[in-house]
Structures
1.
Amino acid sequence: MESDRARPFLLRVESTQVWVQTVGRLLYQTGYGAIQFFIPLVFVNQVGLSATAVGFAIGCGALAGMAGHFLGGYLADSPDYGRKRALIFSAILSLLAAGLLIVTKALPLLIFVNLIMGISAGCYWTAADASVVDVTPSDQRQRAFGVLVLADSIGLGLGIWGGRRLLAQPQPLFFAGSVILLLFLIFIGIAAAETRSENTPEAETDTLKGFAIAIKDPSLQLFILANVLFTTYIGLVGSTLPLYFTRSTGTSAADVSNQFTLWYIGFGALIQLPLVQALSRLRQVSVLMISMGLWIAGFMLVWAVGPLTTGPVGTAIALALLSLAGAAYKPFAPALVAELAPESFRGIYLAISYQCWSLGYFIGPVLGGWALDQPGAIAQRFWLGTAVTTLAGVFILYQLGQSEDRAIEAQLERTPNLEPQDSL
């Protein structure tokens, strides 16, 4: 153990397939993530659609992601398809959506494109994370997901940084995203291996049975309640907060994208691995409660930026706090789900838990778009109301921790020789 701690953090992740998924995540987020970031700025500020209409289109894509997660879980756990084919299918859909955005001008086509993107994202996240869980032992999963989140942040930062230089003309912006997603498709097709176990007993390959088991799991149910809040916050920050800052502070879209790249994306990438290393000794539920506390602080500061007239300094601190909150949440949430899931139904458990991303990315943009179309005072107080909702998340996570403690105590009573487990 000491020799492992003495090694650099990145070198403690030993699986080649984790690094394949890391490069894939970098490419995917550079193309897909940047496109998603600039859709509100392009279609509201340049095309002339209302913030509510664009928020609705993005929200429809998020709801389509629900179907994508179910489909991704089915494909990833199915002996006839598996993780790699699910990833290739996702890449083809994302490439199609990026190509259609080049010619999109009207709301109906924007909604259709977002529906395709939602299905693509659902398949991608479920299959990619299931592949990582397959090839990592329990004590390395937080590290592995920490590396993936780092690639996520770097890819999104590169996409926003590059997209800002193409923002004046939407067609080159979306064409560049298409090229990057094509590279992602080629890379996954060549480098990714099928990681699903071929030794799974036939009785445990019934994916419909796996969905029933996951839905009835009380611990997963509690996690989902909290996870809807987490993902709504992330959806708000990504889709609504940039437009809010351009309207409330008079800052240009280019300057706002710079601030997001530096303080939300860049700071998150810088702090990601040290943060995972510092928090890895805590229970995963405890880390998620810490994340909730950081969301409270970040949203409170977003609300206070106007009255305090702190300008760019207050904005930067708020974005840094929100970045820290996301950096604490993202690696530990899937690691917790992996501990809850039976080995043969990992893709399904992840698919169920990732429905929260679809719900969150529907609720966030729709509510955020509505708030931005209201008078300035309502738009500003919206962030205070969002901060208050995090208190419910803290309570739910506390209940999840208590539930897991009771489950561990019951297991110890049945088998007294077992050592208590603190993984959750």
2.
Amino acid sequence: MILSPGLIDQHSAQRMDGWMDQTLEALHGNGDHDDNNVTSWVSVCPRGLWKVQQERTGMESQQTVSTSGDDAPCASISRPRMGSLCRVRVRLKADGDVAESLVSENGIEKLSVTEFTDSVAQAFPRCQDSVLQVPLGDWTTLRLGEGQCDITEACVEGMRAGEKCEILISPIGNGPDVSVSNPTEENLPLCATVELKAFTPGKESWQVSPAEKWEWVKSHKERGGVRFRSGDVWGAADSYSRALKLLITLYGHIREVKKQGQEQADEQKDTNTGDETQHLPSANEFKTTKAELHSNLSLCQLKLNQPERAKASAAKATQLEPGGTKAWYRLGQACQMVNELQEARQAFRKLLEIQPESPAALKALKNIASREKETNAQLGLRLSKMFS
């Protein structure tokens, strides 16, 4: 899943490293449509990229969530936004055809705001053997924007309460594994239904405070680390990309705080915006976090055999934090993979300047010397045959 255009500023998005946007052609939201109300986009799953085609099948019921004390329903035209708790159900098409509807007799089900908002998003690990990533057939509560279930979130972003849609999912590209070992998802392409029962209000991009965005950045960064350690490299890359997109929107706020100086920043702590300023990162923390995210994204891209993108991400990390040893090592690795041995040597030598006697750098330089020696020997042999 990718962040919808409403979650980030257009100007900021243009400045963002476009890796995920280029990899996941931003078809959702403003994507491919046809006369049959079909939308297509590309989503991230633990084993790679999958194309999703969505067709809305209309309002199965007018289920709503109350947002006021008198149980008045929310406007039917509203849709989930960033941070919305969404009550959703995903079923394979075969199951959905025979399952009974869980709406009331008159087709309208009210869900009180107290009943729903007192609940929290359900936590369940992303499964390496699943494409849909949600417990099938059960009502599940998701928090929109977290990237827990890429395909489901992408569907829900454009749905209304009570709406139902059908999706067709098929693997694309050269993902690490396009087989589906989950017995309930054994037939490709997959056909499933997604239902949105109710949701709590979320926020548009301009409504999300800088402090809230910073919390989202830290959450995505932490989630990316958890996913990477579990072997979900695609999911980790998605999390780091989400964090970078949100971080970019904070640049103006960080710059203003830095420009005002510490004295004025201290004065603001006594105003309504002071608490928010206290929860924003310093300029150095902002730069360090951005460098770490680019470096982590570079590692994911190396694992996904995308050396050119890994090189670009690592280079950005070294520019932001010249003393970052991991970024220099990953830059050297990426240069090796694209056979730019001179650039790789420079990266590893820079690593040795920062961390003398680094075993990894010394080993890499030795490998480069061996490759160059082998290349020169092969070239000499070809030249000797030409003139013999």
3.
Amino acid sequence: MTSSPITALPLTPARVGSPPPPVTDGEHGGLLDALAKVPDPRDPRGIRYPLSALLMVAVCAVLAGASSFAAISDWLRDLDGHARDRLGLDRIPSATAIWRVLTRLDADLLAAVLGGWLTTRARRSPPVRPDRYRHVIAVDGKTLRGARLDGGRQVHLLSALDTDTGIVLAQVTVDVKSNEIPVFAPLLDAVHTVMGSLQGVVFVADALHTQAGHAQQVAARGAHLMTAVKGNQPTLSAQLKSLPWPDIPVGNRTRDRGHGRRETRTVKAVTSRTPGGIAFPHAEQAVRITRSRTTNAKSTRETAYFAVSLPAGDALPAELQGWIRREWLIENQVHHVRDVTFREDSHQARTGTGPAVIATLRNTAIGWHRTNGDTNIARALRRANRRSHDLITAVTSSYPTTQ
């Protein structure tokens, strides 16, 4: 091998700690208990319907497939009297009353409350290698294309997905005059509130979040960051591209085929011994992944670079490849489902925090059904709609009962 300022990663495993202990039955809570933490934006004088009951209706309706505020009201009206009593309503509120409350809520707080509630109920599969377990959180943003605010401005949300359970732990609203970068720290705080600790957690994100401030904020919370490196960080990008990759042995290679496509992904990872190390705060490794794809006799090749704050012994190439692929889950398992199943881009919510609130309810529905073992969310929504009493029983139970 030629002389190089880098060393290839060793392939010896290192213990990184056991997974967090499972939540005990005594820590489970029903939905009403969780919703009691959401502050009521209404004037206390003249309140006719408890906020927790209205929120319970909204959550259950979206779990049963309601895709708009009007559909939430319709779902409630279709229930029998006994079902409405179980939801805490002795009479039916108007569609306008429900809409007025939901569009005035603190959407970011509601997302954290519902993310925490789902997390306490989720059944986690035991890791295959407990000594190599790491909690991986994917961060990604989404524009609600149909929702418009004053002046035609669009609503943009930044979310954090627990890639183990499929639960959106937190979601924050991006200021219409800004971008995702300033709300990254508030998102970390919201995830910390839900999880209780970020120690050892790995956050994976796209190139927009390859920011020095983000790396420092993640490290300050005892967590780790893995981000793509592109042209928005020209110095770092040039450094990673200039490394002698041909001299570095392949750390991991996977091959997949299906749907008429063959794909090979090759990972190389190195640590840097150049003065000052990798030109990014807390970065311990540089990673290159090469994707070769053949579809209908047409071949393409793509190379991507990443920086990760975990040292070689704590993040082997096979693990790095797995974490990179998990970053896609928030797009494939959440955003795509919201667009296709809930037709989110066609929903023209315009008032107050309504667009973010309804997006949070959709996240909750997707996470709920995934934690119950459903992979076809559309089918799960239809089943929940047919079995409304079972659904109400499940969400009000203090145990993770499926419906």
4.
Amino acid sequence: MFTAAESDPKLSKEQAGPIEAKLRTALLKAQYARLQKAQRALLIVIAGIDGAGTGASVNLINEWMDARFIRTMAFGEATPEEKRYPPLWRYWQPLPALGRTGIVFGSWYQPLLREAAKKKPDPGVIQSLAQGIREFESMLAGDGIQIIKLWHHLSREAQKKRTDDLLAHRETAWQVHPSEIKVRKKFARLRSAGELSINLTQADFAPWHIIPSADPDMRAVATGQAILAALQQKPSPIRSNFAPDNGIPKAAGGRAMAGAKIPPRIEKLDYTAQLDSKEYDTQLEYWQARLAELVRHDKFKARSLILVFEGQDAAGKGGAIRRVTHAFDARQYSIHPIAAPSDIEIAHPYLWRFWRCLPAPGKIAIFDRSWYGRVLVERVEKYAAPADWQRAYAEINQFEAQLTDNGAVLVKFWLAVTRAEQLKRFHEREASPFKNFKITPEDWRNRKKWTAYMQAANEMLARTDTVRAPWHALSSNDKRHARVAVLERTVTALEKALDTH
């Protein structure tokens, strides 16, 4: 893999000059063409052997292209703030918008490379880290981010010479990081770690390019040519890295849901369940008090709570949310009503806007509708292509697994009403001066597609009801019953997570 790069090829100044001049012009033209179309973003991942000139390549890209439309993202060790969130959280935040370019310097590859370079690496950890990278990059590629990865490489001798030459002069010594001096002692291990990491994460939608880096001109030309080829590449269908069954939960007894008939879970709810007003008042106060105690417990400081509310129009999501927040300190929670994405959100990967709303430990985030819009409204209204919403089940499960792995308690509710009850509530809203703002032409239009929405919702429940993030489908024909049930399920989930019961 590295044989050609370790031969340390060179370009003379006479050879490099004309090539570089043409490359700079072509890169600018391709960059502006990409900006005008705004169909895809370009993400350039910079990696390689320490001392191979990765920093110089980052500077070169910004110099040769229009830096106003390039965002360089340099990641070192995670800060205390970043460590409060899932590991990929910090990489989602600065992703480039469609048409723009991002350079990632220090990336999600660092944990994999560190593990692979150990004297006794753990094969299981390596496979898990590589799988996480493949899933992450596949998700980005499916949502319009083109990824190219540049591995800078040179021979052991050339790496030693380059660092020694830089150290020999006061003007350049600052460019040498201590890690670059240590490379010569463990070059073989670092080389093997790079080779293994590349092999495990090579993909058509996120290809690796080996950049010969001993000679600055050769490095510059190889870097520019790889980026130009990516900018000029026509979009092609993305083959998802998710296996067909990946992320699809098992039904009772271990039977895979994929390909099976979707059970009508919502239709089979007990819509006669109800509470009288006296019992409701008693239970409401009881469960709110228990919830208030839990979110103020010392153990909750290390966890977070994410509540997701989905359901038919007029199913009572807002009322249920208000009864839950009654137990919280207003400084502790945030509510995110999810509507159609803004232009800025549309220009980023689908899950981007949700990553930005995640709560820190000790905090609570409530989503009034959520990332499930992709497999509900976007599916039914054909805002998302079939390939996109079909892929989303596995992507959502993987996203939620990252949240719960990081300590979040994720509780998901589907509040359900019968078609007759919904019609009754629509008419009540129209007649009430205090509620008629809640009824819109869109509500009536969605009602006409009741069957399609029920089919989508039942499939969503079947394919994203996981052990770590289960769905709670609740009858909401009686709002009092639903509100108490939401509080009870939330308390039970928190007590289990905090081990306080």
